[in-house]
Amino acid sequence: TGKFTYDPGFLSTASCNSTITYIDGDKGELLYRGYPIEQLAVQCDFLDTCHLLLYGDLPNVEQRTTFRKRVTNHTMVNEQMQFFLRGFRRDAHPMAVMTGLVGALSAFYHDSTDINNPEHREIAAIRLIAKMPTLVAMAYKYSVGQPYMYPRNELSYAGNFMRMMFATPCEDYTVSPVIERALDRIFILHADHEQNASTSTVRLCGSSGTNPFAAIAAGVACLWGPAHGGANEACLNMLEEIQAMGGVAKVGEFMNQVKDKNSGVRLMGFGHRVYKNYDPRAKLMQETCKEVLVELGLENDPLFKLAMALEKIALEDDYFVARKLYPNVDFYSGIVQRAIGIPVSLFTAIFALARTVGWIAQLNEMIADPEYKIGRPRQLFVGAAKRDVKPLAER
Ligand code: CMC
């Protein structure tokens, strides 16, 4: 049909110019604003990474203090949020709840709703980064029927999140530095990943000039799917299923199912549209996973052993080798989160918490681009030719 290029799944179409994240899928390289993920994961923390993604560079000492003050100034959410949350069933999926809560933020901040105003976008960015941990922890507390814990601004970003999750008014909670650092690393590794499905959703949604909080809620909704952010939950469920089948001894049998295209079974946490080599995030996550299990005395964690066995077989198997399928970030992140007490159903919400900065940085970049236009893909129409409506009795 000539006029438009047909490219389902955007396999070969660039939707934008971007200066934020660079991926070399063949080398297995990931850079945020030019800095290798391996250096950021070791030398910086998540809030440094947020500064980098939002403003283009790592903060100096003064910028670091100012940025942290600004974020912590916004960690509480409006008290009315509790009543909104109360409308959900307690067993609602946290991602259903998060889609609602983030969308609801759009109703609270009338001073930052103009996406075309850079100051509005800036304050919306700070609010989102600051409030996501509070919202995820509230969703969790609601699901277990415990009182909400207010944020504590003297704690680190990850430390505050763990406290809001696991402290109660009867008992405070202290987190070990190893665990705090592991969670912070999960946040860094998930902070941005160029034009993935949820980020593209945020850009497309924001391109209509909508409320910035609403655009981020669209990203949360997209992330939920098992082919994207939902893979961490799906991966852990898969490992638990294999464990229930008989564990490491059953890996071969499970792999045969995966290789049988009719089974519809995929090895979750494996494969990536861009990485055709080891996902560098998966390497870092595997290291963190080992550290956390040692810290918690869970070196013999059966799911970790199972994951290692699966990985080994997959990396040697012709099916996986031919298709260049390697573990992705979600393969080990679920094991870490489970070990530190985070329920499986909350994994994707934690991914959303971390990806929020990427979404908002990408949204800001799009709006500030002089070439930006409303996103409006074309189609190749393959339906019925023009025809006349028949009277009901003749149809
Ligand atoms: N297990 C088994 N086979 C697979 C897998 C897998 N996980 N992933 C891809 N394949 C096969 C697929 O069947 C196809 O085979 P063939 O060429 O014979 O038809 C080939 O590999 C290419 O797959 P594709 O579906 O065309 O690749 P894609 O780029 O469209 O999909 C993906 C990428 C991530 C959706 C896919 O690899 C997948 O479903 N993985 C499992 C889910 C997952 O772990 N997702 C998290 C991605 S990383 C975090 C994030 O970005 O959210």
Automatic annotation (TrEMBL):
Fetch the InterPro entries from UniProt. Answer: Citrate_synth-like_lrg_a-sub (IPR016142), Citrate_synth-like_sm_a-sub (IPR016143), Citrate_synthase (IPR002020), Citrate_synthase_AS (IPR019810), Citrate_synthase_bac-typ (IPR024176), Citrate_synthase_sf (IPR036969), Citrate_synthase_typ-I (IPR010953)
Alphabetical list of Pfam families matching this protein = Citrate_synt
Q: In which pathway does it act?
A: Carbohydrate metabolism; tricarboxylic acid cycle; isocitrate from oxaloacetate: step 1/2
**Entry's CDD domains?**
EcCS_like
Q: Which PROSITE patterns match?
A: CITRATE_SYNTHASE (PS00480)
Q: Which cellular component terms (GO) are annotated to the entry?
A: cytoplasm
Transferase: present as a keyword of the record? Answer: yes
Any idea which UniProt keywords this protein has? Acyltransferase, Transferase, Tricarboxylic acid cycle
Q: Does the keyword RNA-binding apply?
A: no
> Could you cite one Gene Ontology molecular function of this protein?
citrate synthase activity
Catalytic reactions of this protein: oxaloacetate + acetyl-CoA + H2O = citrate + CoA + H(+)
Q: Which residues form the active site?
A: H272, D330
Superkingdom is Bacteria
- Please provide the Gene Ontology terms (biological process) for this protein: tricarboxylic acid cycle
Which family, according to the similarity comment? Answer: Belongs to the citrate synthase family.
Name of protein: Citrate synthase
Supply the source organism for this entry.
Ideonella alba
